[in-house]
Amino acid sequence: MARRVQRGPLAVQRPFYPEKDVCHLYLLHPPGGVVGGDQLRIEVDAASGSAGLLTTPGATKFYRSNGRWAHQQQIIRVAAGASLEWLPQENIFFPGGYSRLTTEIHLAEDARFIGWEVQCLGRPANQERFEGGEVGFHLQLSRDGKPLLIERLSVGQGGSLDHVSGLRGCPVLATLVATGIDTEMLELLERRVKGIEGAEVGFTLLGDVLVCRYLGHSTEQARKLFVTVWGEVRPRSIGRPACPPRIWST
Predict the structure, then answer these.
(1) Do 99 and 69 form a contact (C-beta atoms < 8 A)?
(2) Which of 39, 68, 147, 167 counts the most CB atoms within 10 A of its CB?
(3) Which residues contact 9 (CB under 8 A, 6 or more apart)?
(4) 152 within some domain
(5) Is residue 233 in a domain?
(6) Which helix (H) or strand (E) holds 117?
(7) 3-class state of residue 237 by DSSP
(8) Residue 18, domain member (yes or no)
(9) pLDDT tens, 138-168?
(10) CB of 9 closer than 8 Å to CB of 31
């Protein structure tokens, strides 16, 4: 890590190097949650030839608000010859909250990237549905300024969770993307990952970008799925065997 700039509560610990030449960083938010009126902005720049992996020590909670919006913006830039992995733990959106989460990933031509995001609407473990609030998601992945993937989803009041064309009553949705993937790897994943109870899982290949989607009822199930997929695709995408961050085991 060459430079760190911090304003406000967001911080990173010292860098770890379990793979010697890959910088593992843990992004910390000491307040423990995001409330209405908060504006968090995370910018990550992977310089040419660098390698980094970012994760979080626990779930990020977006709390109920009095109508004010909470915004979290994540901008990731990966320069030529660099690799970056964005692997945070899940986001939990409490009922009655108003939140917007935006993630932009800008890649140079030969940059490599693996990233995921796991979203939990409400608190299904406590039988709390996401009601009385609104959440907006925006994900954009581009290479040399050309869009590869653009997604938007808005979940609002009035039973949006139950729409047949939407989330079909499932409170947990998750997306994983990885570059440098071919049809051989896609077919391998489709053979190895199937039959997850109570959930829908799909794989799509957009050029050399793998998109894995989960729709279900468990953040733990989604996370286990993505760790499995990450372990399979990392050697192909990043050129390294899987090396789980130590914080995942604590």
Answers:
(1) yes
(2) 167
(3) 29, 30, 31
(4) yes
(5) yes
(6) strand 112-121
(7) helix
(8) no
(9) 999 999 999 999 999 988 865 567 776 668 8
(10) yes
Q: Which of 16, 21, 150, 162 is nearest to 82 (CA)?
A: 21
Strands (E), 9-95: 11-12, 23-28, 39-46, 51-55, 60-62, 70-78, 83-86, 91-93
The amino acid at 212:
C
Q: What is the pLDDT of residue 160?
A: 65
Q: In what order do the strands lie in the sheet with 134-143?
A: 39-46, 70-78, 98-107, 134-143, 146-155
- Report the alpha-carbon distance of residue 13 to residue 47 in Å, rounded: 20
Give the whole-angstrom CA distance, residue 65 versus residue 179: 37
How crowded is residue 70: how many other Cβ atoms within 10 Å of its Cβ? 22
Note whether residue 163 is domain-resident.
yes
- Alpha carbon 5 to its chain centroid, in Å, reads 22
pLDDT above 80 (res 229)? yes
pTM: 0.93
Residue 70 in contact with residue 98, Cβ under 8 Å?
yes
Q: What is the pLDDT of residue 61?
A: 94
**Residue at token pair 């009553």:** 169
Res. 116: pLDDT tops 90: yes
Write down the pLDDT at residue 184: 96
Q: How many domains does the chain have?
A: 1
Domain residues for the domain of 137 are: 23-249
